[in-house]
């Protein structure tokens, strides 16, 4: 039998009971076209479904074997290493291999490739040229000197109309040829003029990393560097060291807003060797960048979460900048943690992993301290002898007692005015968008809720009420929908209200805002940051998009408008996230020649996370929080899992959640060091018209927890579920 007589296919169906390899006969006309990674259409039961070819066989023991129906895309959608990664993800995150491959596979080809016509001069005889008009001769000479321009480009270069170019084409004095065009999403970046001098700590960290690269061994480094200590330069030099050894580099950031700055820095250093992958690229741009990586033309990839699946084949170093960020967690199936996937890729490639942060996740730092999960590298000083900003904590309770009901304390307002008079820039941070967070009736006490979600609507400055979960919007009602009263009031503060008050208090200041409402268009976040960086704005107001990673030398004052927005969340990680956000946003101040200052406004100035952040003392916070986590049995001393149920009928959702809990109990939960809490409604019990219930599982034994859930899911899926969907999240980042 021919070597490729039968194909091994993973069918694209997200059900664990069919999560295995199926064999199909390869018709003769397809054998030369197919390869591992090709997408095909196959008969599956009474349906025809897409699937991925993952291997071939010359013979099979089962009979009969159905034929592949159609080749959807012969080009491979992933590499063999990425297929191995998909199998690992399926086991790790309790998803199917098909679901993992959907994350990994090449982007849609709907966006590319793109072609354009280039114009070239036909030599012709001197007599032919004599018949040309002066403008035609001008265009012909331009085509001869600059072959390959498009018609429009040639007309602009020659200073003539497109009609002149078309007449030359009709005469046969010009000819066209079709060529592929690569869409570069970041084409214009000025090259680096020289390498900065490394600090002693940077040099030591880099030397340690390069030794592991040279030895070709997989090793994990935790780069704990204070804000402004030069972590990015270590990333740049580590990537260069990998390229010098004929290997590749993968650099990840948690948010696209951060990606833009890092992309500019890497493109300035490495030029066309850099490819970019993130969700804000156009379909064609993403396809072209993926193709460049797959073909080996771009050995250095910079991007957000999904870039961890870039089709690199010889990775030498993987960098996760701001490794603590919850943005590295994928919130849809499969619910993967980017850091874990990056480490899995590094294991397959024997690569070095660098986890960088000024505020490492507790789990990460604890593993590095003991040496069990990585080596700790420290950068304790800012580059060029710059000092960390001073942090002042303002008690908002005292402000209220003094009669100040504005969002800015007297201290913060005074300091903003002073910085503006000195021609310096200010950042104001609040991790909540909109104008007012709730609209409440003062007669009946009812809030105005979303029609599709169990959450109150947020008032926006354009007069609309919006749901930040499903996107529903409605005009601000004139009367209360519940009782008909006209006493509707707006409460709470969002970034739009901060902007409005800043414009009133500082009318001459140029104010810009960066949040989810202002970055709806492609590249809008880059434009806002560039405007601020170039000094065309005085005050930047924003959410967590502005809290970390950005290097803005003109900023000398940062105001944290309300530190309690994260501190009071119903989440065991609220103190950690509060400490991280304050420390990170404080680090935006004082990166230029002038020293920086930070004002933190809070109703809980005595809280240990606020105190530790004010002292910029990570070790102090780490010791206190780890003690509490150990006492309460929370990560990293245990593993958590969340099982979420959702459906259109609330009673059915609750019933299915109860059945799953009983199923877990029958498999030994409770007696097997696995604690089960719930079922209960999450904080938001309905989203997009789907009612929700969840179970929370906790165990000190991660493998035992995962095995128990695998068995329960297999049994649960075998029954009729009545339209109720179930998903599992290992190590959930939130419980909303």
Describe this structure in words.
Helix 5 packs across helix 6. The chain is globular. With 736 residues, the protein is α/β, with parallel strands linked by helices. It contains 22 helices and 30 strands. Strand 3 and strand 4 form a beta hairpin.
Quick structural summary:
33% of the residues lie in helices and 23% in strands. The model has no long low-confidence stretch (mean pLDDT 87).
List its salient traits:
single chain; alpha/beta; seven-stranded parallel beta sheet; 22 helices; 23% strand; globular
Distance between the termini: 56 Å
Strand order, largest beta sheet: 10-11-9-12-13-8-14
Record field, number of beta strands? 30
Radius of gyration: 29 Å
What is the count of DSSP helices, taking H or I runs of 4+ residues? 22
* Amount of helix: 25-40%
Biggest beta sheet summary = 7 strands, parallel
Could you name the ranges where pLDDT drops below 50 across 5 or more consecutive residues?
Answer: none
Average pLDDT: 87
Structural class: alpha/beta
The gross shape turns out to be globular
β content, as a range? Answer: 15-25%
Secondary structure: elements and pairs:
Elements: E1 6-11, E2 21-25, E3 39-44, E4 47-57, E5 70-73, H1 80-92, H2 97-104, E6 114-121, H3 126-130, H4 134-145, H5 151-158, H6 162-171, E7 174-181, H7 200-215, E8 219-225, H8 231-244, E9 248-252, H9 256-270, E10 274-277, H10 283-294, E11 300-303, E12 315-321, H11 338-349, E13 352-357, H12 362-370, E14 375-379, E15 390-395, H13 396-401, H14 410-421, E16 425-429, E17 438-441, E18 458-459, E19 464-466, E20 473-475, E21 488-491, H15 495-505, E22 511-514, H16 524-533, E23 539-542, E24 555-560, H17 564-567, H18 574-586, E25 597-602, H19 608-614, H20 618-632, E26 639-647, H21 650-666, E27 675-680, E28 686-687, E29 690-699, H22 702-718, E30 725-730
Parallel strand pairs: 8-13, 8-14, 9-11, 9-12, 10-11, 12-13, 15-25, 16-23, 16-24, 22-23, 24-25
Antiparallel strand pairs: 1-2, 1-4, 3-4, 3-5, 6-7, 17-21, 18-19, 19-20, 26-29, 26-30, 27-29, 28-29
Helix pairs in contact: 1-2, 1-11, 4-5, 4-6, 5-6, 7-8, 18-19, 19-20
């Amino acid at each position: 039998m021919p070597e490729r007589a039968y194909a091994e296919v993973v069918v694209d169906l997200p059900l664990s009971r069919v999560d295995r390899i199926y064999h199909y006969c390869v018709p003769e006309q397809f054998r030369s076209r197919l390869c591992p990674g090709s997408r095909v259409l196959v008969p599956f039961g009474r349906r025809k479904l897409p699937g991925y070819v993952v291997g071939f066989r010359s013979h099979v023991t089962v009979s009969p074997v159905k034929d592949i129906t159609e080749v959807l895309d012969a080009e491979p959608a992933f590499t063999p290493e990425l297929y191995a990664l998909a199998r690992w993800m399926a086991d790790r995150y309790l998803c199917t291999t098909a679901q993992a491959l959907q994350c990994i596979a090449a982007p849609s080809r709907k966006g590319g490739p793109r072609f354009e016509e280039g114009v070239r001069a036909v030599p012709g005889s001197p007599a032919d040229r004599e018949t040309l008009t002066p403008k035609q001769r001008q265009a012909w000479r331009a085509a001869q000197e600059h072959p390959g321009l498009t018609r429009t480009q040639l007309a602009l270069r020659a200073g003539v109309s497109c009609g002149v170019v078309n007449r030359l084409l009709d005469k046969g004095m010009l000819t066209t040829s079709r060529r592929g065009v690569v869409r570069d999403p970041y084409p214009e970046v000025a090259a680096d003029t020289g390498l900065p001098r490394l600090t002693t700590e940077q040099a030591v960290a880099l030397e340690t990393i390069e030794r592991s690269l040279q030895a070709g061994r997989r090793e994990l480094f935790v780069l704990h560097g204070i804000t402004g200590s030069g972590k990015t330069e270590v990333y740049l030099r580590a990537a260069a060291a990998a390229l010098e050894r004929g290997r590749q580099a993968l650099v990840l950031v948690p948010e696209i807003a951060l990606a833009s700055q890092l992309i500019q820095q890497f493109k300035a250093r490495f030029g066309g060797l850099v490819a970019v992958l993130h969700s804000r690229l156009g379909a064609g741009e993403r396809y072209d960048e993926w193709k460049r990586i797959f073909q080996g033309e771009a050995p250095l990839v910079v991007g957000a979460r999904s870039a961890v699946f870039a089709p690199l084949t010889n990775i030498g170093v993987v960098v996760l900048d701001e490794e603590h960020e919850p943005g590295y967690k994928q919130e849809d199936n499969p619910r993967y943690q980017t850091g874990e996937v990056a480490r899995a890729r590094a294991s397959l490639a024997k690569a070095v992993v660098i986890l960088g942060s000024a505020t490492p996740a507790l789990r990460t730092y604890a593993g590095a301290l003991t040496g069990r999960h990585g080596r700790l590298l420290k950068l304790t000083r800012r580059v060029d002898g710059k000092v960390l900003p001073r942090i002042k904590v303002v008690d908002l309770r005292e402000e209220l007692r003094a009669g100040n009901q504005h969002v800015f304390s007297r201290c913060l307002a005074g300091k903003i005015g002073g910085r503006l008079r000195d021609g310096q820039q200010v950042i104001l941070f609040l991790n909540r968008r909109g104008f007012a967070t709730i609209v409440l009736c003062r007669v009946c006490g009812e809030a105005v809720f979303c029609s599709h979600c169990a959450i109150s609507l947020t008032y926006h400055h354009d007069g609309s009420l919006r749901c930040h979960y499903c996107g529903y919007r409605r005009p601000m009602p004139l009367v209360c929908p519940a009782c008909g009263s006209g006493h509707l009031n707006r409460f709470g503060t969002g970034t739009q209200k901060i902007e409005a008050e800043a414009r009133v208090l500082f009318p001459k200041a140029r104010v810009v805002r960066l949040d989810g409402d202002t970055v709806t268009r492609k590249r809008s976040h880059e434009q806002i940051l560039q405007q601020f960086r170039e000094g065309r704005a005085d005050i930047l107001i924003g959410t967590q998009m502005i809290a970390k990673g950005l290097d803005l030398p003109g900023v000398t004052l940062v105001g944290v408008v309300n530190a309690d927005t994260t501190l009071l969340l119903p989440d065991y990680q609220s103190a950690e996230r509060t400490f991280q956000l304050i420390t990170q946003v404080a680090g935006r101040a004082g990166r230029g020649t002038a020293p920086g200052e930070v004002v933190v406004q809070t109703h809980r100035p005595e809280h240990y996370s606020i105190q530790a952040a004010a002292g910029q003392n990570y070790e102090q916070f780490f010791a206190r929080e780890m003690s509490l986590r150990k006492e309460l049995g929370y990560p990293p001393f245990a593993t958590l899992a969340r099982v979420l149920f959702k459906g259109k009928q609330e009673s059915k959702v609750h019933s299915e959640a109860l059945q799953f809990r009983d199923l877990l109990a029958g498999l030994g939960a409770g007696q097997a060091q696995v604690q089960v809490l719930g079922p209960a409604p999450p904080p938001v019990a309905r989203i997009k018209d789907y009612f929700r219930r969840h179970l929370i599982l906790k165990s000190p034994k991660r493998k035992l927890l995962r095995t128990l859930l695998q068995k329960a899911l297999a049994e649960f899926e075998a029954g009729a579920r009545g339209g109720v969907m179930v998903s599992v999240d290992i190590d959930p980042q939130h419980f909303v």
